[in-house]
Amino acid sequence: MRYDCKIMNEKTGNMTQLTKVKKLVVGGDPGRFQMAVDLLLTLKADENAWISIFSKAVLKNQFKNRDKKTLELLAQVSESRPRFRKLLLLALPQTLDWLDSLSEEVADLLVDWGQSVSLNGIKKMSPTVTRKIASIGGDLSINGLTSLDESVAKILALHQGWLKLNGIKTMDDKVIRLLACHDGRVSLQQIEGVVLLKLSNHERCRDWRNFIPNKTQVKFLLDLKHQGIFDGLIQFAADKPELTQWLLEVIPDELDWLTALSPEAADLLAKKRGPLHLSGVTFISDEAARALSNHEGLICLSGIQQISQQAVVSVAASKGFLSLSIGDELSYEMAQALARHSGGLWIYGFQKLSNEAAALLSQHDGQLGLSVTSLSDAVATALASHRGQLYLWDLTSLSDAAANAIAEHRGDIYIPYLTHASDLAIKELARIKGKVCVPRLPEEKQKALSREQMRLTRKKKRA
To answer: Fewest C-beta in 10 Å: which of 51, 202, 267, 441?
Structure first.
């Protein structure tokens, strides 16, 4: 770093001190850096010295320490040094999440900076500081705030740009009415659904109780894929037929982002036309299952971890393709109800398939998928009487006897994870009257299966 002694126009002693200052800023130690600033102030060094010693590279390196005191000190001393302040602004990092509070001097610095800024470490702001940063043009991220009082909300409502308040979960009606007047995008990822609905009322924010979001607003809210917002919409639509109708029209088929399903939500979804993809739901109550039983169309509940026998019986009464995880155990009563299901049926989750349950499920009229990890000879014999497409998920090996039994099945068989089968088992599978799909078997085994199928076909033609 070059330093022209002539531009300092100081005595030799002062120049020696400035040399010491330059050494203090090497290495980026916050304590030594602050000593350097104090020494320059004591020497009453001119602005050229400040610019020479604290270059952009030095300042950027110093900010890597994320030291709040250093930033506050630099913001203060640069107020009366415009050229040094300009240099400081060029070195500022865009993310200042390491600040846990904001002084007025730093706020003024950010205003001069005029760029989008991230202050997610701030937990609380005074109205004075809020007024300063609210005037910043660009995105303002203060996700560390967990609450808003009236005075702060009133100021933030004047902000121009994207306002991110993702740490706030709820707010009172006065704050809602103030923030609803914000002329721009407000991000509230943690906010309760009903609160966001109130905030959506920009035109009538003074009387949100009479507000019914229009169809476009409903779709916008659903596109956020937020559980709380979804629940809030369902709750809000309870006594509003028009809103209920809009919900039925715009609710997407893909609802895998939902993790819970209330009875009220299930009742509304049951009226929806088309498929319901709910693989993110991990628990369904008896009441919600009873409501879903009225749905006509695909229902995917493959992520269920906890479900009662009664809930399984209820869901089985729906009409359409059903993909259902039933927990660890498939009881006789469950199998009986599922066997009567009208539509394709895929069942996941159970650890063991009993002979009795297999016999019941084999009576199911339509596509049948089972997440079995093993197949006993008796279970294979029972399933062989099923007619239609049969999927045996998670089955990795097949005994000769089980292959002999399942070969009596009439319809396509898919065993996508089968990797082990003897030559005799391959010959037995070739007898199946339908397509046999075993994509993970070794290539030579798949070729052997194809040859045997062709041989049997030629033999049948000759006969």
So the answer is: 202
Residue type, 86: K
Provide the H-helix boundaries in 255-331. Answer: 263-270, 286-292, 309-316
The structural domain count of the chain equals: 2
Q: How many residues does the chain have?
A: 463
pTM for the predicted model, two decimal places = 0.61
- Amino acid identity of 398? L
CA distance 255 to 238: 20
Pairwise CA distance, residues 10 & 42, whole Å? 14
Task: Specify which residues 186 forms β-bridges with.
Answer: 163
Short-list 398, 346, 352, CA closest to 377: 398
Q: Are residues 186 and 111 in the same domain?
A: yes
Can you name the residues that pair with 346 across neighbouring β-strands? 323, 369
- Above 90 in pLDDT, residue 323? yes
Per-residue pLDDT tens digits for 262-300: 999 999 999 999 999 999 999 999 999 999 999 999 999
- Of 170, 185, 211, the position where a domain reaches its end is 211
Q: Are 91 and 56 in contact (CB under 8 A)?
A: yes
2-52: pLDDT as tens digits: 444 343 444 444 556 777 778 888 877 888 888 888 888 888 888 998 998
d(CA 19, CA 3): 9
- pLDDT (tens digit, 9 = 90+) per residue, 130-149? 999 999 878 999 999 999 88
Q: Which domain holds residue 125?
A: 94-211
- Judge if 135 and 186 occupy the same domain: yes
Pairwise CA distance, residues 410 & 427, whole Å: 16
Q: Which residues contact 129 (CB under 8 A, 6 or more apart)?
A: 102, 103, 104, 107
Among 198, 193, 201, 200, residue whose Cα is nearest residue 225: 193
Residue 49 in any domain: the answer is: yes
| CB-based contact 113:92 (threshold 8 Å) | yes
Do 58 and 121 reside in the same domain of the chain? no
Is residue 280 one of the residues assigned to a domain?
no
Contact 164, 140 (CB under 8 A): yes
Per-residue pLDDT reduced to its tens digit, 173-201: 788 878 777 777 777 777 766 666 666 55
Are the C-beta atoms of 377 and 402 separated by less than 8 Å?
yes
